[in-house]
Design goal:
single chain
Length: 273
């Protein structure tokens, strides 16, 4: 049990690559942003002794719905730019304890650190998404530049915000047919923003935190990353063109045609037909 080097584990290598790409794209300055990845016990046990708990860290809320689940999570105060060079200090793998109140650290946070302060938001979102999609494994949060810029110049209405994004790239309604949920500005790092985010996650895989950033959920790191990446591209096109007279646009009838051709379950109420 656990006789392989965890640094070579495919799940950790993919996680590190995702963090590096998020930093490279300018989504996660300083210690901005966080990622949590739900792991299966058998894949963890291949690399770690799951009976050897390094230390116990209080979660700060009751995660009883996730008891016994394993997570790979970025550390609080840690810079995404350093994850690739030193994963053992910047990320950690832990199990939710039998009382649901603690994280049983199995590996990582070697400098005495702990998980991101946004962990309540992540775990609450995992709980919400797992009820909708039992295969959901990833929640990521970042501060993509153009998505954030769009927050300041566009009405923060879910239908209107989603509709504008859908108009910006032909792929958008196919990639995120469920649209984008939006929260007003709220104090981050609290259980209340976690609860609000989780509520939105019941119907959206993408949730914008007003004037702050975005949350994405997915079955894989690539899916969650790709959702945010597509929103960010659409927001960039919007910001580059918003001050100019629009000559052409993707019509609602064309978006409907796209969604139906690709067989996605889109928010019909977000179109004006």
């Amino acid at each position: 049990m656990g006789n392989k080097d965890v640094l070579n584990a495919p799940f950790l290598r993919a996680f590190v690559k995702t963090a590096s790409n998020m930093y490279r794209l300018g989504w996660d300055e300083r210690n901005g942003g966080n990622i949590s990845y739900l792991l299966h016990e058998d894949e963890v046990a291949e690399y770690l002794n799951i009976n050897k708990v390094v230390r116990t860290i209080p979660l700060g809320f009751d995660a009883k719905e996730l008891i016994g689940k394993y997570f790979l999570v970025t550390g609080t105060g840690k810079y995404f730019k350093n994850v690739e060079e030193d994963p053992a200090n910047n990320v950690g793998i832990f199990r939710i304890s039998k009382d649901g109140l603690n994280a049983e650290l199995l590996w990582g946070y070697e400098d005495g650190g702990k998980f991101t302060s946004e962990l309540p938001s992540h775990l609450m979102s995992h709980i919400a998404r797992l009820k909708v999609d039992p295969e959901n494994r990833v929640i990521l949060h970042s501060h993509p530049t153009y998505t954030l810029a769009m927050n300041f110049v566009h009405k923060l209405d879910e239908k209107e915000f989603t509709h504008t994004l859908w108009e910006m790239c032909t792929e958008c309604i196919v990639v995120f047919p469920d649209g984008v949920g939006i929260l007003p500005w709220m104090l981050c790092g609290t259980n209340s923003i976690g609860e609000a985010t989780a509520k939105k996650m019941e119907e959206f895989r993408l949730v914008v935190w007003g004037m702050h950033g975005i949350y994405g959920a997915g079955k894989t790191l690539d899916e969650a990353f790709g959702l945010v990446e597509t929103v960010e591209k659409a927001a960039q096109i919007y910001i580059l063109t918003a001050h100019l007279p629009r000559v052409n646009t993707i019509k609602d009838s064309e978006m409907k045609e796209l969604a139906e051709y690709f067989g996605v379950n889109y928010r019909k109420d977000f179109l004006n037909l």
